[in-house]
Amino acid sequence: MAGIVIVGGGQAAASMAAKLRGLGYVGAVTILGAEPVAPYQRPPLSKGYLLGQMPLDRLTLRGADWWTTNDITLRTGLRVEVIDRAAKTVTAAGEVFAYDQLALCTGAPPRRLPAAIGGELPGVYTVRTLADVDAMEPEFRAGRRLVVIGGGYIGLEAAAVASKLGLSVTLIEAAPRILGRVACAETAGAIRALHVAHGVTILEGIGLKRLTGETRVTGAELADGRVIDADFVITGIGVTPETGLAAAAGLKVENGIAVDATGRTDDPSIWAAGDCAAFPWMGARLRMESVGNAIDMGELVAENMLGAGKAYAPRPWFWSDQFDAKLQIAGLNTGYDRVVTRQGEGASFWYFRGETLIAVDALNDARAYMIGKRLIEAGKPVTPEQIATETDLKALMK
Predict the structure, then answer these.
(1) Confidence (pLDDT) at 1
(2) Is residue 269 predicted with pLDDT exceeding 90?
(3) CA pair distance 71, 11, nearest whole angstrom
(4) Residue 345: pLDDT above 90?
(5) 3-state secondary structure of 221
(6) Facing residues of 142 across strands?
(7) The whole model's pTM is what?
(8) How do strand 89-92 and strand 80-84 relate by DSSP bridges?
(9) Domains of the chain
(10) 279 contacts 259 by C-beta, under 8 angstroms
């Protein structure tokens, strides 16, 4: 029996394999990961790992003996090049692997700046893999100048780490404000103030014309003609789901690898989970880039491979560490039309669509995050006025 083959070596793949064994599946389970290391946590790469506070052995999701004990074949450093749907095989580096069921957990690599504007100059980095962070780590030395392109969470986290290590940091965001795609103006304002207080220069509403330099990046020329000198550059301009393998195999691609509510593609033997998978949600296709989604969807697909037939109902949660502040997020703020701000242990920002609570951002306020998460997941009715005036948030759970 060929068993189950999982393409990709990240959180979704590891969670899926563990769930399969936890459910009592006794067939072959094979993980084919393109990176040369066992599955590990990605979020700490741009935080604790880069700061030197989290060693590699703490990043790894499972110890080497766990894979052996659970009879899971983990092959690293193998990039799958071809899916043969008729033969039910995948090929990697000339080696052919047969499958009964196949799961694609191929992730979403970062977008890069075009080579024509300096995106491939030495000294220009992205943050996604262990190799990315290992390559840039020697650059993080006090007194050096870093330019960050992009004011999303990845760029802001890199800026915070660099500032803590004594570098001079300038962050450039082409949109009118940082976090424009993912957070309200109130949350962005609090994060901006935090960075400015730590000496980070944030330039918003100004585009990048090109990166300067001949044999190595030396700076960033902005659309208004200014040039910001740089010893190195980090780009955080979003990610693109890895769909090439699926598309070449003739699978449907729509904002990611298109799957139904159970995580199955239009081939009944092939599934997808994690950052690469686009599932039906509220009349459209949703793709989520988070640890929580990778774990939950990976485990759900494992159940459905074994016949559970469950529909995926995402319970979104995210977090971001900025300096000594922790931003915790629950829910999806898509389509919000009102934000209520509360001051508690820290600050929290509550998103409403009409009278429905849909998301909360909690900055150094774990209590607000936990209560907000429970309210959202339970679908418990709560009004903007209650959030604004209730002295004890816990009372809203009754």
Answers:
(1) 56
(2) yes
(3) 18
(4) no
(5) strand
(6) none
(7) 0.94
(8) antiparallel
(9) 4-109+239-306 (3.50.50.60), 115-235 (3.50.50.60), 324-397 (3.30.390.30)
(10) yes
